[in-house]
Amino acid sequence: MLPIRYVEPVFRPPSEADSLILPVTDGCSWNKCTFCEMYTAPQKQFRAREQDEVLESIRLTGQRYGDQIRRVFLADGDALVLPTRRLLAILEAIRTHMPAVRRISSYCLPRNLSKKSQLEMNQLAAAGLTMVYVGAESGDDEVLAAVNKGESFETTCAALDKLGEAGITRSVMILNGLGGQCWTHQHAENSARLANATQPEFLATLVVSFPKGEARFRQGFPGWEPLDQHQLFVEMEQFLQALDLRRTVFRSDHASNWLVLKGTLGAEKERLLTQVRQAIMQPEAAGLRPNWARGL
Cα–Cα distance between 191 and 189 in angstroms, integer? Predict the structure, then answer.
């Protein structure tokens, strides 16, 4: 019998491929974003797991594999929705039963951090919470409202600043193409403005996609028209050009992206812009990922 109970499908960031996935909640407490298909399965209704089950899973996993586990990812969609006292108990149990762990991370919805004080975030950092992934999606309030994100530029900034003040590493994700043709420019500009204001340690872009169809998305965004490949590159150029980052690791290498970009901003900004401009002017020479390999 496995020491951890999983409810499929299970999601985690690409960089957590070697981590122990430890569910402390099931699903997403918001789960209203019209672009997101991750937690729409019937079995993924949001619920917080019983604390006794989580702590027993940690104990049993530690008995079997404790000295082999270096990283733990707290699942599902927004583990930080849990009360701080529960999170502190989970972090303490990981330290006790998995002493080799060096990184503990989770997804995070900005709204959940509005309910936690700076002192609470400092306590979570001191107890071992190392890294948080924030799906900002956009820095533009009109785009965020159209996709029912339930957040704004200001709420996302506040959450990222609170995490940064606590010394927790922040990985921020922006969706290339989310504003469609109508709002592509303001989406790019304001997403860059969000990153500039908060200076996250990591920044990534994915291309918005709908493997299960666009009907749900278009209900709230009826005028939306997708960007073609060329327009996605133009939006990416505008986004990169507007970034003013001191030292942020940038990745645009998710399977949804046609063009793979990797570098540190701002040191490698010009190189990344050169790559994007080549894709705009000469896509056939830009080493693009073929459509069949985009994993959609």
Answer: 6
pTM over 0.85: yes
Tell me how many domains the chain contains: 1
**Is 180 inside any structural domain?**
yes
Is the N-terminal amide bond of 226 cis, ω within 30° of 0? no
Q: What is the CATH number of the domain that holds 54?
A: 3.80.30.20
Per the CB < 8 A criterion, the answer to whether 125 and 168 are in contact is: yes
- Confirm whether 1 is domain-assigned: no
Total length of the chain: 296
Say if 245 falls within a structural domain: yes
- Mean pLDDT per block of 10 residues along the chain (296 residues) reads 88 92 95 90 90 97 93 95 98 97 97 96 98 98 96 98 98 97 97 98 94 85 93 98 97 90 95 97 89 72
| C-alpha span between 253 and 171 (Å, rounded) | 14
Within a domain: 27 = yes
Domain around 204: 14-293
Q: Name the E strands within the chain.
A: 20-23, 25-26, 47-48, 71-75, 103-108, 129-137, 169-176, 202-207, 248-252, 261-265
Please report how the helices 51-65 and 84-97 are oriented relative to each other, as an axis angle in degrees rounded to 10. 20
Asked whether the beta carbons of 203 and 250 are under 8 A apart, the reply is yes
In three state form, how does the secondary structure of 197-212 look?
HHCCCEEEEEECCCCC
